[in-house]
Amino acid sequence: MEGEEQQAATQPKVGSLHSDAERYLEAYQVFLEKCESEEETTKRWLQEEGPGLVARCKVPAKTPFNVLGMGSGAGHFDALILHAALDKYDQVFCRVVEPREEDIDQFKNLVDEDERLKTVAFEWHQQTDEEYFEETFNDDTKFHIVHAIQLLYYVDDLAGCIKHMYRQVAEGGLLVIIHLSDQTGCSNLMKKMHKFVPDDGDEQTPYRTTAHIKEVLDKLQLQYTTDRLNVNTDITECFVPGSETGVLLLDFLTHTPHFTDTVDPGDQQEITDYIRGPDCSVERDGQILFNNSSEIIVIQKLGDASN
Ligand SMILES: C[S@@+](CC[C@H](N)C(=O)[O-])C[C@H]1O[C@@H](n2cnc3c(N)ncnc32)[C@H](O)[C@@H]1O
Predict the structure, then answer these.
(1) pTM for the whole thing?
(2) Keyword set for this entry (predicted)?
(3) Out of 158, 176, 193, 251, which could bridge 27 as a Cys pair, Cβ 3.0 to 4.6 Å?
């Protein structure tokens, strides 16, 4: 192979950040730090609405309350749902599906430090969604809440994952999805990024919004309600020359490892101009604020025990 070809073959692809675990985590941490409010807004929503979600679930008497966390990460949001369940139920069971060992370890530490969470019966699955659904294909365990919080960008088969998650919801239970809204600067950027992703037959794309999820739900004829989490991210550093924080933020926004080193300079300019422009961001008090609001989709399983 010629030098240039070889380099092209080993260079990270646009849109492939999810395949580079170390860089992904680094970029995600920086992104979270810069999200004015994503964590807080999601936490507040779960604290306010979590008890209502638990109350909506129809659970037969003397049955433990079962929760399935898909792509739970370090479990900070899971903990809030579990606390709401513990307020109402004496026995809570929680199955966690998370492929990253470090995240599972952090989740376990969180449990160790929380007296109430220690009363939950946990089952840990260090697996991807596909590995987990294959393993549990003949498992009849049903869950009163199944949640996927900021996960569905990363699953290969979106429709398959939603179908399998719904299949594991108990009659009267809820499937709760939190995901980037289809009406944000971030979703505009995702649409824009499609043009730069190499067309090499790799179907997996992180550039997914709730529009894709709603399309699947409509096809499956599943009814849902939605709520919105308004979130802005301070991306000013992306435009400060030499800023390492800015470089990591750009990696996360474009979902491309080492974006500034690997993407053609002309394409970089087009993409960063777009990120800074009115389709994605506003400027306020000297800050560039990128809009990446999320939506919460709740599907209740009613009168359909066959699924
Ligand atoms: C953006 S993080 C969200 C973590 C957590 N739910 C939260 O909201 O803080 C996405 C999580 O999904 C996990 N993940 C990635 N691909 C996955 C897959 N195919 N199946 C299950 N989890 C996956 C990642 O390891 C990561 O912990």
Answers:
(1) 0.82
(2) Methyltransferase, Transferase
(3) 251
CATH number of the domain to which 64 belongs: 3.40.50.150
Domain total of the chain: 1
Within a domain: 224: yes
pLDDT at 1: 43
69 alpha carbon to ligand 1 midpoint, in Å? 10
Mean pLDDT of the region 280-298: 94
Which one of 154, 162, 165, 168 would you pick to mutate in the ligand 1 pocket, going by the greatest count of ligand atoms within 8 A of its CB?
A: 154
Domain span at 95: 11-300
Within-domain flag for 295: yes
| Average of per-residue pLDDT across 195-210 | 70
Contact status, residue 125 vs residue 95, Cβ threshold 8 Å: yes
For ligand 1, pick from 30, 70, 124, 151 the residue to mutate: most ligand atoms within 8 Å of CB.
151
Q: Where are the beta strands (DSSP E) in 118-200?
A: 121-125, 143-149, 169-180
The answer to whether residue 275 sits within a structural domain is yes
Q: Is the CB of 99 under 6 A from ligand 1?
A: yes
Query: What pLDDT sits at residue 114?
Result: 98
